[in-house]
Amino acid sequence: MKEFGYQRAHDVLGALALLDADPDARFLGGGTNLVDLMKTGVERPARLVDVRALPLDRVESTDNGGLRIGATVTNSDLAAHPEVRSRYPALTQAVLAGASGQLRNMATVGGNLLQRTRCGYFADVTKPCNKRVPGSGCPAVEGEHHNHAILGASEHCVATHPSDMGVALTAFDTVVSYETADGPGELPLAEFYRPVGDTPHRETALPPGALITGVTLPPAPVAANSRYRKVRERASYAFAIGSIAAALDIEDGVVREVRLAFGAVASRPWRARTAERALTGAPANAETFAAAAAAELAAAKPLPHNGYKVTLMRNLVVAVLTELAEEAAAR
What we know:
Elements lengths: L4 E4 L3 H9 L4 E4 L5 H7 L6 E4 L8 E3 L5 E4 L4 H6 L1 H6 L1 H9 L3 H6 L2 H6 L5 H4 L41 H7 L3 E6 L2 E6 H4 L18 E7 L8 E6 L10 E10 L2 E10 L6 E2 L1 H7 L6 H12 L10 H23 L1
Parallel strand pairs: 1-3, 2-3
Antiparallel strand pairs: 4-5, 5-8, 6-7, 6-8, 9-10, 10-11, 11-12
C-alpha cells in the first residue's frame, strides 16, 4: 500500500478545503471499499479526508412526506430505521442483503453509492482495464464475464455496479445532494451514474471535489408495498448475479403504479422504465409481468457466458411482482 496522509474533517466546508488543498486526496467514509482497493494498489490517494465526524448521520422526514438520509448514516442504521422499514421496505431489504453485519456497521450511504465494480480485471493491477487505465482494453469481453453486464455496456467496459442499496434507491427516484467549493447541488440518481460509452473511468456526474451530503427519497405511497430480491451464487455474503427492487399498486386487478429497478445487469442500477410503461394500466397477472420483462430485456446484449441473466431477470420480475400482487389482493 502506498504511504498516505490522514486528516479528520469536522464540518463540510473544512472537508472541502482539505480536498481542494490536495488534488490526490480522497474522502473516507467507512472505507469498506476504498481501503480494500488501496491495499491492492488500485486506489493510490496521497491523503484521506475522514468525513465520518460530519453532522450528516440522520434520517429525517421531509416536509412533503419523503425521507432525507445523511451521507454518513451507516447501512446498519439505515436498514433499522423505523420510517425506512415501514415506508420503503425494499430499501431495508436491499441493505440487509448487502455485505455482512460487520461491514454494514461501517459502510455509509454516500460511500455505498460511490463503491466501485468488483470485476476481477479491475481489481488486478497486473491486468488491463479501461476503468483503471483508460485505453488499456477490457479483457472481460473475451475473458471471464459470467457476472458481467447485459444492459447498457459497451466494447470498452462490461463491468456491473455492485450496490444493492442503489437498486432500491433507483426505484424510488432518489435525489443525491452534494456540496462543492462553489456551493450545493443535486443530481437525480437516474443521472448520477454516467453511461459507459468510451469513458468507463468517468463513473459519476459529480463535479470534481464534490462531497455527497445525503440522499432524498420523494414521497412514494407505492413504496410501502415493495420488495427487494437478490440472487447470488451462495447463500452467505456474496454480490448479486441479478437483483430486483419492485413496488406495486393495484386497483380492481389492474396495475395503477409500478416501480422496477434491476441490479447486477449494468454499470449502474438499471431503472426498468420500459417494463413500467408496459405494466401501467395492464392486468396484474403473470402473463403481463412476463411480457413487460421481455420488453425491458429486449435491449439486452449478453456475452457468451452471461446470457443466463436474461432468463434470470425475467423470472425475477414475474416472481416478485406476483408475490406483491397476491399480498395486495389479500389485504
